[in-house]
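Exam revision sheet. Question 4 asks you to relate a sequence to its structure. Input first:
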Amino acid sequence: MMMVSVVVSDTANECLEIHKPNHAELEALSPITPAAEIPKNIKCFAKCLLRDYIGKDNKLSLQQIGDKADLQERVILEHCLAQYDGMSTLAPCDYGYLILQCLTLKIEQKKSQLLQ
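Answer key, structure tokens:
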């Protein structure tokens, strides 16, 4: 799954160490795979990647992202937040994974539209 510019490499390295997803697992990910089929360590890895941008309410904060996301990413993130922020039944690591999954899918859709 493509990770976007809001992810910082030091954080990624720490998250890799903590959650230990292997390279093959990460390469095999498809952004259309339902979260229920994703191993917990991968979902927790995704949540960990976003940890610097999670507010006190345990939701992604556009304010904390600041200028680390470009305008297109911010617009897409707003859409993804609207889709998932109200869901209270998500397992702890599902939220981060679903936000990154949504972001990845929307960016891929935009790229496809540009190529048509």
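Marking note for examiners. Helices lie at 9-19, 23-28, 40-49, 62-65, 71-84, 94-115.
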